[in-house]
Design brief:
Length: 255
């Protein structure tokens, strides 16, 4: 088996359940945003009474907060992540509900004074506003417009960035739902892949980067990428991130 086939076989066999990226150590790197999402949510969780984490993945990030509020809930859409999230959040007293990404949240109005979400695929601003208490906060680190467009374009050709990925569009949607946007920050982060196996695992895990990705479908491009990495030493892409913090007004706006 040559080097390419060995790396392809390895990349295709790595489990991709949960949201743990420790396998990539030594194989790929991604810069972290400067604001420190875990630190920010930890500070807010320490003073919250009831908190919700939307699309928690396997609960890996939320499980790292040092102190949990009296009520801690999470949602997750992908069934393989549910058991992982429940195990990770049990020490914090957290519960995890199976909720489709585009489904209404199964909680009463004004249930939470803090709602957080890291890298949601869908953000339902109206539902977030509904479950927040007056004066409650939504804090989210989201995928920015054009994230890893170099990697997507390598496999699928030139790409246009849809309007709904633009930061301004999402800020406008938050405001239209009645939220007051308090903070918006953006960052461009360098992503470096050192072998084709790392690219395969990434595309199997972060499935929106190249939709309908499979090794069989993109074998020729993977072979091209393998040769390029061998020639250049790595493949470099760039992730876009933005942080948004919004507050539900204590008093409803007058029409």
């Amino acid at each position: 088996m040559d080097d390419f086939e060995r790396l392809v076989a390895e990349g295709a066999s790595v489990p991709v359940d949960g949201w743990d990226f420790s396998w990539f150590e030594g194989r790929a790197t991604e810069e972290r945003p400067p604001w420190g999402y875990l630190r920010l949510i930890s500070e807010r969780m320490a003073t919250a009474h009831a908190a919700l984490d939307i699309q928690t993945g396997g609960g890996e990030v939320l499980a790292k907060i040092p102190a949990a509020p009296p009520v801690l809930a999470a949602t997750e859409a992908w069934p393989p992540n549910l058991a992982i999230a429940r195990t990770n959040l049990a020490p914090l007293g957290g519960t995890v509900e199976h909720v489709a990404e585009d489904a209404p949240l199964p909680f009463p109005d004004a249930s939470f004074d803090l709602v957080v979400s890291r890298h949601p695929t869908v953000t339902d601003w109206t539902e977030i506003a509904r479950v927040l208490t007056p004066g409650g906060t939504f804090l989210s680190q989201q995928i920015g417009a054009g994230t890893n467009i170099e990697l997507t374009s390598f496999f699928k050709g030139p790409q246009e960035i849809p309007e709904h990925w633009l930061t301004g569009y999402r800020v406008a949607r938050a405001e239209a739902a009645g939220l007051e946007v308090r903070d918006v920050r953006e960052a461009t982060l360098r992503v470096v892949f050192h072998d084709v196996a790392a690219v395969i695992v990434f595309l199997r895990k972060v499935i929106w980067t190249v939709d309908a990705f499979s090794v069989e479908r993109y074998r020729e491009r993977l072979a091209d990428l393998h040769r390029r990495i061998r020639r250049d030493g790595s493949f470099v892409s760039h992730a876009q991130r933005f942080l948004i913090e919004a507050r539900k007004p204590v008093t409803a706006r007058r029409s």
